[in-house]
Fold this protein.
Amino acid sequence: MDSFPIRYVEPVYRPPSEADSLILPLTDGCSWNRCTFCEMYTAPQKKFRPRDEAEILASLRNCRDAYGDQVRRIFLADGDAMSLSTRRLVAALAAIRRELPSVRRVSSYCLPRNVAKKSVEELKELATLGLSLVYVGAESGDDEVLARVNKGETFASTLEALHKLREAGIKRSVMILNGLGGTTLSHRHALNSALLMNEAQPEFLATLVVSFPKGEARFREKFADFAPLDIFGLIGEMERFLSALELKRTVFRSDHASNWLVLKGTLGADKDRLLQQLRAALASPESAPLRPAWARGL
């Protein structure tokens, strides 16, 4: 085969845990694309559009010919594959089974509003066909923070989606943005985000630090008084967040390049250890094992 088996529209994004997955675009861009903190799909070439079914099938056949039985995991891109109809998702998952039978896990980003459009029975059908994990960017559990960043979701809409996915047997990896509320809303952002996670009991939970590599102008359109937290303000917010968490068995990661202090564990088994790490950093900033600024990759 002379060309790459899949047509990509760059830049291409995927969760860190999907580093070894085949990235299969079902859509380009994000159907919402209004979150003021997100710069992933703002480039002109990332305008939202579903991919043609014939192209998706051709991509899978190309991958079959190129990689044979080497593909074990597939991540459905771009930011909004779950915006497709159940019929189209069923067709894509069935084609993956047919063309790449060695695949053992299929995952996708997932917006709560897209889950709202599908019944539990439809989601169960997707799970049966191989969709086993979705990444839900909750960002915050606080409705004021969510409104300020134009998320288009609420505590209630996110929780309903997470409950629905659990009922369907699809695992949920939820992301919360450390620092999203700035200094003014930090306390309620931490506590309400913890409350959302306590209600949802996700299988996986991750935190990233909010950042603006391309500037803050878009973000400040609805959050003009935003004052960012400094490093130890971010760590303090994490301490409040973890203190309020009451999770039974959730794999927790705060090791993205944006995080100053790397945290890994299972909640609740490792809650005390993680809190000790956070409190030690706050008590002795000069000896805290912080990631150097140059290594944050932003």
Summary: Residues 178 and 238 are 7 Å apart (CA to CA). The first strand starts at residue 22 and ends at 25. The chain is about 35% helix and 15% strand.
